[in-house]
User: Fold 1,3-beta-galactosyl-N-acetylhexosamine phosphorylase from Virgibacillus halodenitrificans.
Amino acid sequence: MNKSTGRVTLPSEQNFLNETKELMERWGADALRDSDGTKLDDEIKQLDAKIYTTYFVARGNNEFAEQHPEETQQLYLMSQFNTAKDKSLEIDFLKGYFEDQIKPDYIHNPKEWWEVINRTTGDVVDPANWEVKQETNQVIINQAEPWHEYTVSFLAYMIWDPTHMYNHITNNWGDKPHDIPFDARQPFSNQFMKDYLENWLKENPDTDVVRFTTFFYHFTLIFDNLGKEKFVDWFGYGASVSVAALEAFAQEKGYRLRPEDIVDRGYYNSSFRVPTKAYLDYIDFIQQFVAKEVKELVSLVHDQDKEAMMFLGDNWIGTEPYGEYFKETGIDAVVGSVGDGTTLRLISDIPHVSYTEGRFLPYFFPDTFYEGNNPAIEANENWLAARRALMRSPLDRIGYGGYLSLAYKFPEFVDYVEKVTDEFRDIYDTIKGVKPYTGLNVAVLNAWGKIRTWQTHMVAHGKWYKQAYSYHGITEALSGMAVDVSFISFDDIINNGVPEEVDVIINAGDAGTSFSGGEHWKNEKVTATLREWVYNGGGLIGVGEPSAIHHQGRYFQLANVLGVDKELGYSLSTNKYFTEEADSHFITEDVSTFNFGEGMKNVYALSEDTDIIVHTEDGIHLSSTTFGEGRGVYIAGIPYSYENTRLLLRAIYYSAGKEEQWKIWQSSNLNCEVHAYPSINKYAIINNSNVEQVTDVYDGNGNKSTITLQPSEIKWEEEQHEG
Assistant:
């Protein structure tokens, strides 16, 4: 592999010139950036590199924010559940919240904008029957129903930006002032943002790329009374709410939102919730506003011949990169944090930008770079996870963030990153703009569809949680597979049917979640369309509780397509005779160990026509069936692993009825993968592990060869055409 340079962004800081020059040379960096908490001095800015400067639109100007406290960003929050023991109930609605982060909004009349709900009945309490004690931050209910539970949904001001708070605590910034976020929808703030940026651009001629971090509204991140994360939803729109926004929404959409439309019983419309019409309307409303305002800021940047880059994080709400309005912003580039293959594809597949950039892990912060720890281990794990996806859809650039002085103290880490940057450029130079071979087309079906492309089963960006990791493995596996992947919604099915190019549909999730579908499965158009499509040759893979809602004697509404249903306890008197496993099956032909995550209990076969592949005392974990000309496959859960990646890929081929194409651009060793690029007559065999691997490799004609790969090696080969 030849040593090359470019396409790498290096973080730097003051008084670190010589070391910066050394690492620029070793890592081949052609761009330098600051981070939250660091600055680039003039000498560093004069180096031969493009200069990125972090820019905060809605925070970092406390002098202005303190002059206009009424324009501080707001959000709706819900109190804890409180049980009434008699007719009077006092609710300390701030209990459990971090009061350095929020304070109640008493500027706007609580009787008009707050809501007290009897959670036992779901009834809204008449404002005449409760009052607010501002001096103690309490709501007093005067006509409570004894032994009923009550909550208060209240408006609050966000007096400390949550990312700044996180960085402040993580890096022990002591008495450094707390950044107060202000609201672009408010008149003084809106004008200030534009005036300040215009002046800043003139005062920073050395800046080539304005790295917006990001724009106006932070994803929902609320801390508890101990200063720990209480609630985090990387998709949450809660911090975009304000009285001004609610009034504008009512005027535009023709109806007024309730506080409950935002707090959502305390679930805050997490992406796991099936979105209501009101919430979808609100998302659309915020996206339109943000796109319009972003376009004005980007135009100011372009007027000074600079590039506008958006960080896919922090204040990214409203700038949905797969949303309807993103293309109108004029943004030049998107940079985001790469936690795995899924998050790499989330960034690299973004349309309507000139280039994409991934910020690789670990971040150069003291929580990783400390004596006794080896950050090269995390860097290696991060690179191997992301590289699979990179082979399918390469980023244009990579980089790191944080304090370069910390990373410099770890020579093994510096050495490893040098190898990573060289390998990245080699991959990019070989395959950028080249379509890889894809055997099949797979669509992931859920309530969000395209807008959540590569974003299913995430709670926080690049992280998975219990009850999510059994499903997040699907997108992680798909991110590096030789298949085309799309994300479709139930509305897409209703309005347009199944896209013609789709071979296999995956529906995965716990019952009632947006990813399984919930109430959408009661829609006869959805079920009838999918049954017909599979019957005529399509493939359906259901994971966990697919198509699940109890309705008309079924739990899985596509039970007849999948060949299985789940026992809810209603039909225990009906015998379930079919438990015998098949002797062998294509799906498990080269998979010997199984991990279904949390799994699923009490799934049973409908008839002897169901091929039971894995069955335990808890029920069926893996099965298949034929439905007309098509096939259904059921899997209890798919945490990410190389074994499960192979199992899912085989399930895709089997459900599509394309087993005969399996040995095309394929590896016999599941620790290795083959990525082919027919238009340039090249293919790559990659070792995804840190140990030597031997594998049989099948080329585009099914010809077999045996190859040995060193730990994490990529081996490029020329495609041999049969004469």
Remarks:
- The chain has three domains: 8-63+161-236+271-431, 440-661, 666-718.
